[in-house]
Write a structure and sequence with these properties.
Elements (H helix, E strand, L loop, with lengths): L23 H41 L2 H9 L8 H22 L7 E9 L5 E8 L6 E10 L2 E9 L2 E2 H16 L1 H18 L3
Antiparallel strand pairs: 1-2, 2-3, 3-4, 4-5
Helix pairs in contact: 1-3, 2-4, 3-5, 4-5
């Protein structure tokens, strides 16, 4: 059974942190590393368990995404209102949630593989990389990765799955929670979601 996938990180406007793209092959490295790790943990599946999948994914997710840029977009105008400890706390929580989501959803292997389709230079030095997640007897799932360079290193800044972005939903949800209940309430809700992933995948 094909797992549910995590569509995340719609991102078109970022701070001017990019340099011009130098090589689609170099830009693919973080994406290929993430994808190969996802297939690996699916193959390990039940043997690894949720905790094992989380442990295997943790360093890869942290090293392949640019969570500061993602956090800035996810919180919109609220980001500028946060002090540095609050910004760091949110980035840490968003990172943990991303790892937990992957560990919970990529847990079964049914012959899936990621196949590179094409690359496209887009504005501000970003590159769009298109992949298909293919599995026997199933319709391919389209993955679009937006990558950019931060301090000379390529990182993922957006993933769109079959045209759907989780970041757009997250931005609406997160800013709404802050508006209604405040920043601390948002952190508590993210913590609870991480806890729920671990609890619901304990067996």
């Amino acid at each position: 059974m094909t797992p549910r996938y995590f569509p995340a990180f719609l991102l078109f406007l970022l701070l001017p942190l990019y340099v011009l793209a130098d090589s689609p092959e170099e830009a693919r490295k973080p994406v290929d590393r993430l994808n190969s790790t996802l297939v690996e943990v699916m193959k390990g599946g039940q043997k690894l368990g949720y905790a094992g999948r989380y442990k295997r994914l943790d360093p890869v997710v942290r090293q392949t995404f640019e969570f500061e840029a993602v956090s800035l977009i996810a919180l919109g105008v609220h980001w500028k209102k946060l002090d540095q400890p609050q910004k760091l706390a949110f980035m840490d929580k968003l990172t943990d949630l991303s790892i937990a989501t992957y560990a919970a959803q990529f847990k079964e292997f049914g012959g899936e593989s990621f196949q590179f389709e094409s690359s496209q230079d887009i504005k501000n030095g970003k590159i769009l990389l298109r992949y298909n997640l293919v599995a026997p007897s199933e319709k391919p799932i389209k993955f679009e990765y937006f990558v950019g360079q931060f301090n000379g290193q390529w990182h993922i800044i957006n993933i769109v799955v079959d045209g759907i972005s989780d970041l757009a939903l997250k931005k609406a949800q997160y800013t709404s929670v802050i508006d209604r209940e405040g920043f601390d309430a948002l952190l508590n809700k993210l913590t609870q979601k991480i806890t729920d992933y671990a609890k619901n995948n304990a067996t």
